[in-house]
Amino acid sequence: MRGHDWINTCFPDDLIVEIFSRLHSMSTRDACSLVCRRWFRLQRLTRTTLRIASTHLSSLHRLPTRFSNLRNLYIDQSLSIPLHLGKMLPNYEEGDLDFLRLSDAGLSALGQDFPKLHKLGLIRCSSVSSDGLTPLARKCTSLRALDLQVCYVGDQGLAAVGQCCKQLEDLNLRFCHRLTDTGLVELALGVGKSLKSLGVAACTKITDISMEAVGSHCRSLENLSLESETIHNKGLLAVSQGCPALKVLKLHCFDVTDDALKAVGTNCLLLELLALYSFQRFTDKGLRAIGNGCKKLKNLTLIDCYFISDKGLEAIATGCKELTHLEVNGCHNIRNLGLEYIGRSCQYVFL
């Protein structure tokens, strides 16, 4: 019959949900959800990833009924409502926008509503502390990735993640000023066997003590990114000696010297990506150790490394034949000759 809705008449909910789950493009699934109210409701059931700005935090209590299969949740409060728009709200008073901030109670409720959560990102959630992260960790024991940026979570919350989330593989800590070595050491003790990726940036109370714990307990670590003024040779030596599976190493640590890079070249033989930023205390000796040991190196980035010269690149060109990507910026002692070494020996390199 012309105009008859055969799909909605004949197809049960579970079959339509199965069809939606096989559409890998999010834009295609979103387009399908606009066909009718039924498809809009069913498409939500297949959605596993959700990103929320602060302007939508007032709807958090509705998430369990709308997105029952949610596994990955990212809350970004840097995408907040402008102050001048807030003042346009009826009866606006200073502080009335608190309902647009994720609280400890809200975070705890998310753990209660989504116990099967796999990935959680909290960006600029300044009202969240250990009081919210601790109960969430106890509920979301399947958590595999945790991203904390500009949050006020302390050692107690991070220790709870280490005690409860034994499948955690990816941890990113950025501008978490309340965290100290105590929290990160406890986490390494708890999830050392599963942790594969760790990022620490501008956490001023995290020092070599934490890196020694990582080196002792996280032998499966493959990806390490450090941006710190409080982590020195001692911490990086411990990681290089204790994490032989390391494949990606990104460093922005002002006091690391050739000794640390020599240890990386000696121990991290599977290293594929090395990025060094603003290094002023290591020379061609460190890069020569990388060239001698890291034969699988494919990607090298050197930014503002003032004491690296053409001889350092010559060592890379001689030892790292699999190099495919090279980025050099602000390294004033590297000239055309160093790039010629790379061009002659590394036939697949992209400069």
Question: How do you describe this structure in short?
Answer:
This protein has 351 residues and is α/β, with parallel strands linked by helices.
Question: Please, could you describe this protein's structure?
Answer:
- 40% of the residues lie in helices and 16% in strands.
- The protein has three domains: 7-47, Monooxygenase (Up-down Bundle), CATH 1.20.1280.50; 48-85 and 98-191 and 201-217 and 228-239, Leucine-rich repeat, LRR (right-handed beta-alpha superhelix) (Alpha-Beta Horseshoe); 247-351, Ribonuclease Inhibitor (Leucine-rich repeat, LRR (right-handed beta-alpha superhelix)), CATH 3.80.10.
- It is globular and about 75 Å long.
- The longest helix has 11 residues, at 181-191.
- Mean pLDDT is 87; it is low at 81-99.
- The protein has helices at 6-10, 13-21, 26-32, 37-46, 63-66, 83-86, 104-113, 130-139, 155-164, 181-191, 208-217, 233-242, 258-267, 284-293, 310-319, 336-345; strands spanning 49-53, 72-76, 119-123, 145-149, 170-174, 197-201, 223-228, 248-253, 273-277, 299-303, 325-329.
- Helix 11 links the parallel strand 6 (197-201) and strand 7.
- One of its GO terms (biological process) is SCF-dependent proteasomal ubiquitin-dependent protein catabolic process.
- Pfam families: DUF7885 (PF25372), F-box_5 (PF18511).
